[in-house]
From TrEMBL:
It comes from Marinobacter nanhaiticus D15-8W. Its EC number is 5.4.99.18. The gene is purE. It is an enzyme of class 5 (isomerase). HAMAP family: PurE_classI. NCBIfam families: purE. Keywords: Isomerase, Lyase, Purine biosynthesis. Belongs to the AIR carboxylase family. Class I subfamily. SMART domains: AIRC. The keyword Lyase applies. This is N5-carboxyaminoimidazole ribonucleotide mutase.
């Protein structure tokens, strides 16, 4: 199936976080491709990936990175596709460095920044589904189903002490 989402990350070490975005995309039936693209270690690849993503049929890019996390912003500088940035929890500063690097874009180049770590990766997958759902009924229905199931699971288990 033609990938609709490009799921990229700065290092293999980001995968334990970014797999939560992949899991959500799979749950929503969104076709995606994934690969390591590093702003610092493979800058030429970053430019090529971002510049060719739209013509290859990608509609949303999710980019995760940690530390001096330039990947999402640099990708956004090379494409008009929506870029969702996931700050990976770094060892030294717990991801605050990643969050600020990704969120504090200068006006004029947009990156939609999610929360640090697993929650951010999960929500990046969900938000990508919501964006694609604007023009794709089956993805929109999958998003609605996910949200309804989540609500029902809370309502069905109101006792906070229960296992
Ligand atoms: C960033 O540096 C990556 O996104 C990763 O979060 C961080 C550390 O990378 P490794 O040294 O683990 O490859 O580019």
């Amino acid at each position: 199936m033609q990938p609709q989402v490009g799921l990229i990350m700065g290092s293999k070490s980001d995968w334990p976080t970014m797999e939560h975005a992949a899991n959500m995309l799979e749950k929503l039936g969104v076709a995606y491709e994934t690969r390591v693209v590093s702003a610092h270690r493979t800058p030429d690849l970053l430019f090529e990936y971002a510049r060719t993503a739209a013509e290859r049929g990608i509609q949303v890019i999710i980019a995760g990175a940690g530390g001096a996390a330039h990947l999402p912003g640099m990708v956004a500088s090379q494409t008009a596709l929506p870029v969702l940035g996931v700050p990976v929890q770094s060892k030294a500063l717990n991801g605050l460095d990643s969050l600020l690097s990704i969120a504090q874009m200068p006006g004029g180049v947009a990156v939609g920044t999610l929360a640090i770590g697993k929650a951010g990766a999960t929500n990046a997958g969900l938000l990508a589904g919501q964006i694609l759902g604007l023009n794709n009924a089956s993805i929109r229905e999958a998003v609605e189903q996910f949200r309804n199931d989540q609500t029902q699971a809370v309502l069905d288990n109101p006792d906070p002490r229960a296992e």
